[in-house]
Amino acid sequence: MRFQKLFEPIEIGKVRVKNRIAMSPMLPLGVYRDGVLTDRVIDYYVERARGGVGLIIAGVFKVENEVERAPIPYYPMVSLKGYGPLAELSDYIHSYGARIFIQLTAGTGRLIPPEVMNEFGFKPVSSSVNPAFYRPDIATDALSTEDVEKLGKSFRRAAELVVAADIDGIELHAHQGYLFDQFTTSLWNRREDKYGGDLNGRLRLSMETLQNIKDVAGKGFPVTYRFGLRHYLRSRERGTLKKELPEVGRNLEESLEMAKRLEKAGFDALHVDAGCYESQYWPHPPMYQPHGCTIDLISTVKKVVSIPIFAVGKLDIPDLAEKVLEDGIADIIALGRGLLADPYWPQKVREERMDDIRPCIGCHEGCMMRSYVSESLGRPFTCSVNPACARERRLQITKADRPKNILVIGGGVAGMECARVSTLRGHSVTLYEKNDRLGGHLIEASVPEFKEDVKRLLEWYGGQLRKLNVSTKLNVDVDHEMVIKTKWDAVVIATGSTHRIPNIPGANEPNVVTCGDLLLREKEAGSRVVIIGGGSEGCETAVWLARQGKCVTVVEMLPNVATDLWESNHMMLLEMLEENSVEILTD
Predict the structure, then answer these.
(1) Which pLDDT tens digit goes with each residue over 549-586?
(2) pLDDT tens across 265-292, in order?
(3) Which of 89, 293, 323, 443 has the fewest CB atoms found within 10 Å of its own CB?
(4) Which residues contact 192 (CB under 8 A, 6 or more apart)?
(5) Which H or E element spans position 226?
(6) What is the H or E stretch that residue 405 is in?
(7) Which residues contact 579 (CB under 8 A, 6 or more apart)?
(8) Residue 150: which H helix or E strand, with range?
């Protein structure tokens, strides 16, 4: 077998996992109700088990709502009310030979969602008095010693319910600046009681929580710990892409010492990551991050501990995932968004059908932006390249009762997806495209070297249409006569969008071009470039041009640029603009 290491079994505590592919905790926001899992959540996780993953880490789940009292259960709760769906989920996962862990959190602390504070006037808590991330004008309350003790003990009841539901293990969410992480990090923990001070004091809550779980679940019951090896903070308020800069958060040396103490305390595996909310492009790497972006960091952990290590960081390229295991950098590959884009990633890798794997493009638009951005009003979680994600039952592709003869006009992403799905349903599809290749705006979007994942998606669509033998006609501009002369059962208009040129003096001059013109090499830019419009397209093109040595200025009428992107993509693109000396003129 080409990918032998990926499909070797492994033991975590007393639990044997059939392969070394784990699903990272990717909670489908907006599809649970009142803190309880719904059928949609169960379908979502079961689809990944059906696709061949060895271990699913479901989460994140709260264990209590009194110490950190939120007016609504903004995460699902481990409670008697939610016990039935959790037990049902476990049964379904086990029926596919997979294992399931559940990720538990002590709370969000300073990271409480802004809508909870804004709409309900909720006052966040933390290890110490800290600015709330989304509302720096609001300071958190420091938890009392008694409340911290109560918080740790609340994991006992949660563990009882988890064990009763036949869940195989527990992961503690001590990453990304959440409440456990706020206790372990001196930047956020300035306590003078037993839960503060030196590393032992700052780790005390984690250690006591572990003991509370093991007392209930048993010594062999697996408990893993997810934490970041570096926060990549250049200041209290700002992250950094530059690994050589001094660390304001937790540095690597202290994290390696943590790893040793966590193993000694009895944790059964470490799920290692990087970053926090101020440096979102590390824990949620966007398309601009290279695949395997945290591997150099993760490689240091195996030198100091012997328990299994989970590796993360855009590892959805099969050869890269296999190499990480072969080189002994980690023991388990954790995939998040790669399994949202294609739940059957493990099965396709095992069958060496890599060309059939639908790639994640790192956009965060379906999985994060839909659920978090206030303008979306909390629309349910999904995936921009896999719309069936978290809607597996409702959008299942089934054979049509009556096959139809379908004309699709336009070979961009919408037209290609329509042709692909219609053909899978048994229809006869003819796809017309006026240009000489399929792809539409994906073609220019995939040109910058930092957008290789978009190119992978473009290649995937072309490959799928070829395998399905979709009749494709290029260099044809469809008109009315062509539509009516054939008896089509359905005609789909997928002709896409065009660039919007502002009505300003000089817009028609020969030195004015679109970003698409430049990216497709239909026009060339001189040494000094002004880009009118600071959305993602303008900003990405600015970085691409600046890396060619051009002097670039972006002009934007709004107060900020790249506001059409999710936080991690937005943060990283701003860093890239700064790194490449792009001048930004707003307002």
Answers:
(1) 999 999 999 999 999 999 999 999 999 999 999 999 99
(2) 999 999 999 999 999 999 999 999 999 9
(3) 323
(4) none
(5) strand 223-228
(6) strand 405-409
(7) 241
(8) helix 145-164
Collapsing DSSP to helix, strand or coil, 388 comes out as coil
Residue entry with tokens 């023991």: 331
Residue 534 CB neighbour total at 10 angstroms? 24
Rg (CA), the chain: 25
Closest C-alpha among 417, 409, 432, 410 to residue 468: 417
pLDDT at 73 > cutoff 70: no
What distances in angstroms separate CA 404 from CA 399, 409, 427, 490, one per listed residue?
A: 11, 16, 5, 7
Which residue, 245, 233, 326, 257, is CA-closest to 20? Answer: 326
DSSP classification of residue 367: I
Q: Which of 205, 209, 203, 206 is nearest to 250 (CA)?
A: 203
Q: What is the mean pLDDT of residues 370-380?
A: 67
Distance of CA 383 to CAs 10, 358, 368, 390, Å? 30, 11, 9, 8
Q: Regarding beta strands 10-12 and 15-17, do their DSSP bridges make them parallel or antiparallel, or are they unpaired? A: antiparallel
pLDDT tens track for 383-418: 999 999 999 999 999 999 999 999 999 999 999 999
Q: How many Cβ atoms sit within 10 Å of the Cβ of residue 127?
A: 27
Catalytic residues: 178
Question: Residue 353: which H helix or E strand, with range?
Answer: none
Residue 500 in 3-state DSSP? coil
Task: Specify the pairing of strand 169-173 against strand 583-585.
Answer: unpaired
d(CA 534, CA 305): 47
Nearest to 57 by CA among 273, 223, 177: 223
Cα angle, residue 582 at apex, residues 577 and 586 outer, rounded to 5°: 90
Collect all residues with Cβ–Cβ distance below 8 Å to 354 and sequence separation of at least 6: 318, 348
Phi then psi for residue 456, to 5 deg, are -65, -40
Quote the pLDDT of residue 486: 87
Q: If DSSP codes are grouped into helix, strand and coil, which group holds residue 171?
A: strand
As a residue count, the chain comes to: 587
